[in-house]
Design goal:
The protein is α/β, with parallel strands linked by helices. It is built from eight helices and eight strands; from the N terminus they run E-H-H-E-H-E-H-H-E-E-H-E-H-H-E-E. 39% of the residues lie in helices and 23% in strands. It has an eight-stranded mixed β-sheet, sandwiched between helices. Helix 1 crosses helix 4. The mean pLDDT is 89. It binds S-adenosylmethionine. The site of S-adenosylmethionine has 20 residues, from loops.
Length: 222
């Protein structure tokens, strides 16, 4: 098997718990409540992938983690750049893909906004990453600058579930950001009027909880 193509920078985000806890991530994903949230989330995410990712595309996946969505993305697209600023996450994902898949991928260890792709990117995807990002506007500016056609991402909602996630994480020393739909829409309308934005609430999805997560799909018009 040829060695995977890897690029590394020294940039790391300080509020990222996965530098230390990569090996526990999948144990967390297997908790029944998280599995149920994830089911609703992935149904919506796969609908956006179906609509927007084409077989000739190059996809930049920021915060690929252990590869939950990467394994799907590499089946849909021609090339996937899998970026994460946790080396432990990248070690796990690299060993899970076939030789044929790895040959169409590049792995990058970097804080997302410190990365400048050397090739054109059609679609940028980041699932479960804005949770940890203090400067969300700079982060979205980076995604929207590099994507030619679409950006697909999730972020925690500012409803009851989002607040509970925030409080539980604070207890573990991690500051989780929460987002209002209006805050995302206003930013996008003002700075990126040529992008069409669809936002869906998923997760624990009744009106009174406010859902746990927003799934946001941005598509460049024209
Ligand atoms: C909750 S995990 C999500 C992993 C994967 N996308 C999934 O859905 O299973 C968040 C991932 O984002 C990475 N991450 C967080 N902040 C980042 C940043 N600023 N730049 C690059 N990666 C980041 C973490 O290391 C972690 O692997």
């Amino acid at each position: 098997m040829s060695a995977p193509e890897t690029t590394s920078t020294e940039e790391k985000s300080d509020n990222n718990p996965y530098h230390k806890t990569a090996q526990y991530y999948e144990r967390k994903l297997n908790l029944p409540v998280i599995r149920s949230i994830r089911r609703g989330e992935s149904t919506r995410i796969y609908a956006s992938f179906n609509a927007l990712i084409r077989p000739d595309d190059t996809v930049l996946e920021i915060g690929c983690g252990t590869g939950y969505y990467t394994r799907d993305l590499i089946k849909r697209a021609k090339r996937v750049i899998a970026l994460d600023d946790s080396e432990s996450m990248l070690d796990i994902i690299r060993n899970r893909l076939s030789t044929e898949e790895v040959a169409r991928m590049k792995f990058v260890r970097s804080e997302a906004t410190a990365f400048s792709p050397e090739e054109p990117i059609d679609v940028v995807v980041h699932i479960g990453v804005l949770d940890y990002v203090p400067d969300w506007q700079a982060f979205l500016n980076h995604s929207l600058t590099h994507a030619r056609r679409a950006v697909i991402f999730t972020c925690p909602s500012n409803g009851l579930c989002g607040h509970m996630f925030h409080l539980l994480s604070k207890w573990e020393g991690v500051d989780i950001q929460r987002y209002a739909r209006r805050q995302l829409e206003d930013f996008l309308q003002e700075k990126y009027p040529e992008w069409r934005c669809e936002i869906h609430r998923v997760g624990i999805n009744s009106g009174w909880t406010g859902g746990s997560t927003w799934v946001c799909t941005l598509k460049r018009e024209g």
